[in-house]
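Operator note (shift B, R.M.): manual run for DUF429 domain-containing protein requested after the automated queue skipped it. Running by hand, logging everything below so the morning shift can see what happened. Input copied straight from the record, untouched. If output looks odd, do not overwrite the archive copy; leave it for review.
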Amino acid sequence: MSRFSHFLAIDWSGAKGGRQKGVALAIADADGGPPVLAAHRWSREDALAVLRDGLPADTLVGLDLGIALPHADCGDYFPGWPGSPRDAQGLWALIEAVCAGEANLGASSFVTHPELRAYFRDGANTGAQFGCDGAEHGRGRLRVTEHAQAAMGCKPYSNFNLVGAAQVGKSSLTGMRMLHALRGHLPVWPVDLLPDKGSVVVEIYTSLAAREAGRSAAKSKMRSFEDLNHALAALGSPPVTGSGAIDDHSSDALLTAAWLRAVADDPRRWNPAGLTPQIARTEGWTFGAL
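Run finished. Output pasted below as returned.
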């Protein structure tokens, strides 16, 4: 019997505005059956409400965002700044304190903060603190888990990068506001220990799910029901109903919900080689990065 009863995957978005086409939720039942897409034009605050008050018992929630910023490479999130937090929970609290006046869990105030903007790449500007000694400045600073992703054939980007279609910084910062709001409601692994029972949040990277379903990093996005169902079959999941085009936010959520169900009880996923107590406390980890 699985430790979890349901598996919820959330494809996240850091775009401006209220309801987002880039936010998609899909859920899979431990008893089997195809994953189910929650048909709704979601806002980030809608998703927060589900996580706080609308989850089935014992749900494994996967959030497609970075749950922290790089720390291990420089020994700090914001080296040289005296206000830099000591751990991930402190980072979430700082982001919330700076951005509390923004609607829709926005985080624009954080990346334009006069003492913090130099650490980010935004638009045509690369801040003077975007890298640190030993960092790969082209893609920016990476967490230990992102180096593990790269070793598995994925192409992670820095959470300090706010430029381009592949940027993950804005979505991660807005997600960290949500994680702060979930304190006391849901544990976030591995910042929090995995409880023996109850629901828990993990960070996911949908490309890892696609990779384990037989798709390459270059073809991780599925834009037809046929491609999606082929990938679901590789994970042992029944197909979803539909044909023709599907948006990649929906297909990412559907595939990753099925993937979470397939791998959640594999002990290796909860004990990756690079995950130390210090990394868990400061950087977190991507579930499935080995």
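Quick read of the result: The chain has a mean pLDDT of 92. The first strand starts at residue 6 and ends at 11.
Leaving this for review. - R.M.
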